[in-house]
């Protein structure tokens, strides 16, 4: 069953990626030609919808590759400040505290985890996220904090399961972003968990070995 699911996710992901990429190019071309304000507003909504769909497809492909064991980590000394700076460039909803800390990790995979957590904060965590890092013995805890509705204790493991969306959550996304983040953390040998309570936001914590 797992192999069938992986083949299915891989197939639909790759088959949908090319026409969606073409759609995004066409929308970009239209953006340079349309001057009417109402038409530009409609075009902007269409572009955001297409970007959201593209993100879902990439997450499906990531999940399929992880389930198939095709993701390998290239561990090296990784500057957290460099990862935070890159995240700030691509995630406007994020603010980050400066840090001199480094960890033993794969910068590409760890960066992907941070992007998934930032996206989760944007969709379900009140819109904004604060990223920080702190030394804890010979490890570093990388925190992504949001000011959303919080997560009940009974749901704090369930949110990492595939295709899970909590009651009352916005009808957005496939519910696999946190699944992919947890699986990537496993590949890296890191631990990913959450501390939260209802009406107190949520703090997702990546625990990695300090370099």
**Shape by Cα distribution:** globular
Low-confidence stretches: none
**Radius of gyration from CA coordinates:** 18 Å
| Oligomeric category | single chain
The CATH H-level superfamily of the largest domain is Histidine kinase-like ATPase, C-terminal domain
Look up the CATH topology of the largest domain. Heat Shock Protein 90
CATH class descriptor name of the largest domain: Alpha Beta
| CATH architecture designation of the largest domain | 2-Layer Sandwich
- Based on DSSP secondary structure assignment, what is the total number of beta strands? 7
In whole angstroms, the N-to-C terminal distance is 40 Å
The residue fraction in helices comes out at 40-55%
Largest beta-sheet details: 5 strands, mixed
Spatial sequence of strands, sheet with the most strands: 2-4-5-7-6
How much of the sequence is in beta strands? 15-25%
Mean of residue pLDDT?
86
* Integer tally of domains: 2
Order of helices and strands: HHEHEEHEEHEE
Structural class determined from secondary elements: alpha+beta
Number of helices: 5
């Amino acid at each position: 069953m797992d192999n069938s699911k992986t083949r299915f996710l891989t197939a639909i992901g790759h088959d949908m990626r090319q026409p969606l990429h073409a759609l995004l190019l066409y929308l970009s071309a239209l953006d340079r030609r349309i001057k009417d304000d109402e038409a530009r507003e409609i075009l902007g909504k269409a572009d955001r919808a297409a970007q959201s769909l593209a993100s879902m497809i990439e997450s499906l492909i990531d999940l399929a590759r992880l389930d198939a064991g095709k993701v390998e980590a290239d561990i090296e000394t990784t500057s957290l400040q460099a990862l935070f700076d890159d995240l700030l460039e691509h995630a406007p909803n994020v603010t980050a505290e400066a840090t001199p800390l480094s960890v033993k990790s794969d910068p590409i995979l760890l960066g992907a985890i941070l992007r998934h957590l930032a996206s989760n904060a944007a969709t379900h965590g009140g819109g904004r996220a604060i990223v920080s890092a702190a030394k804890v013995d010979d490890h570093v805890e990388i925190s992504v904090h949001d000011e959303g509705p919080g997560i009940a204790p009974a749901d704090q493991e369930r949110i990492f399961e595939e295709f899970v969306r909590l009651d009352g959550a916005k009808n957005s996304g496939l519910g696999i972003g946190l699944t992919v983040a947890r699986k990537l953390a496993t590949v890296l040998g890191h631990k990913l968990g959450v501390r939260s309570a209802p009406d107190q936001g949520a703090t997702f914590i990546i625990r990695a070995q300090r370099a």
